[in-house]
Amino acid sequence: MRNLRAAAPASFLAPPAPPLLLPPSTPTPRGAFSAKASPAAAAAQAHGWCPSPRRVGRLRRRAGAASSSVASVEDAKKDVLVALSQIIDPDFGTDIVSCGFVKDLEISEALEEVSFRLELTTPACPIKDMFEEKANEVVAALPWVKKVNVTMSAQPAQPAYAGELPEGLQKISNIIAVSSCKARPQDNNKSVLFSRVGKSTVAVNLAYTLAGMGARVGIFDADVFGPSLPTMVSPENRLLVMNPESRSILPTEYLGVKMVSFGFAGQGRAIMRGPMVSGVINQLLTTTDWGELDYLVIDMPPGTGDIHLTLCQVVAPLTAAVIVTTPQKLAFIDVAKGVRMFSKLKVPCVAVVENMCYFDADGKRFYPFGQGSGAQARKVVQQFGIPHLFDLPIRPTLSASGDTGIPEVVADPQGDVAKTFQNLGVCVVQQCAKIRQQVSTAVSYDRSIRAIRVKVPDSDEEFLLHPATVRRNDRSAQSVDEWTGEQKVQYGDIPEDIEPEEIRPMGNYAVSITWPDGFSQIAPYDQLEMLERLVDVPRATTAAVSS
């Protein structure tokens, strides 16, 4: 990513675009609130908690919003929204009203009964019960309210990216890769001890954990050479069938989780070359009628080769990745390689699962690979900024569940292993929600100042770019000759007052910008950051730019 600081061709830089229409406001310190926010909402957001009804009353009186009665339904709705704005989503760091969670708000004609729906980003939200409880509390605390009806729901399953996705993937919200990044023994002459780290075990149990949290889940076994799914689960129908009308593959199902594996195609293990394998994976994944899914867990094949690139770039834009490893130093060499691969492909790694860390016997805990072996995992977490690390023990039941066809989290939902997977599931849900939120709001167009807003990742800062600058610096083959580097689109070809018609995210790495002339520009985030440095645009906090 740092190589983008290199000097760009002259045709890329000249001539400069007109100055940006910057807002007259002065940047405020980080963490400042928008001037449009109510004092009560600002106080709640600053502290990051959900206040008690008594505290809500004090905040509302301080903001001048409280009253013993309301004059109209519209005033009553405003009153309810002010109360609900005290509830802060801990993942997004803002109130549920600003997040757009409050839907179908209705007030009775007598101005006594309030009904509304909270539409969360996922049905697997780990704090949905807290949201429901707090919403009841803060609204019931209004002096004129006698009854509150809260309904909980989740957003329809839909991808967070634009582009021509295959029909089978158009109703999937999040695609999670579970990878060990290790090659097979026959590929690299390593011992069998290091070839199996429990990747498939983690993938299957994670999928059923997410299903247990209320999500719609599917599993795709992308290992064509040695599919594990047919052994680890026991669906009644063990053969994939094709819909004769739509020519789509119908996934098999077990305990409410949809699944597809080459092992269910009646072919056993495949013997074929790399390009053929990529084609098989492409067909199985994209032509399957998955329906609406909140999470599709992909059990990645071993290694970091062509199949992985196909899955990450061509077939399915991945939301996030979970890395599975063991405590040995040799395993972490492969982990580092895999994390770098995902990083290069703009796929965030949200967790590392260290399998076979220890076992308990005779009331004692033993570490077969050394008690300090966990330092290797912590080193990777710190080096690559992966936010979470989970340990799994050597447990006979966990191993046996992979042979009996019943996942461990299903066989023993209250056990220690299930609790670890529950924590992993919560992590995946929260991180995916953050990623989707960041992607959906990373780049937008502000018509009031005629500028493209670009939010800086992991920061409350943003910068502005003139639309003409972005359009003139397109580096695709339609704008620049691939052989000579000659600029096809000249400076004067782009009008100064050009405005984008639509900006949509393209996975985690770019946005698609549609212009009035019909041109669809793919603008990587890295390129937009480089433009910022080239035109020397000052950054400001989001609140300062918004005020």
Automatic annotation (TrEMBL):
Name of the molecule in the record: Fe-S cluster assembly factor HCF101, chloroplastic
Subcellular location: Plastid, Chloroplast stroma
Keywords: ATP-binding, Chloroplast, Iron, Iron-sulfur, Metal-binding, Nucleotide-binding, Plastid, Transit peptide
Cofactors that this protein relies on: [4Fe-4S] cluster
An annotated GO cellular component: chloroplast stroma
Gamma-butyrobetaine hydroxylase-like N-terminal domain: residues covered: 458-521
Broad class of the protein's primary localization: plastid
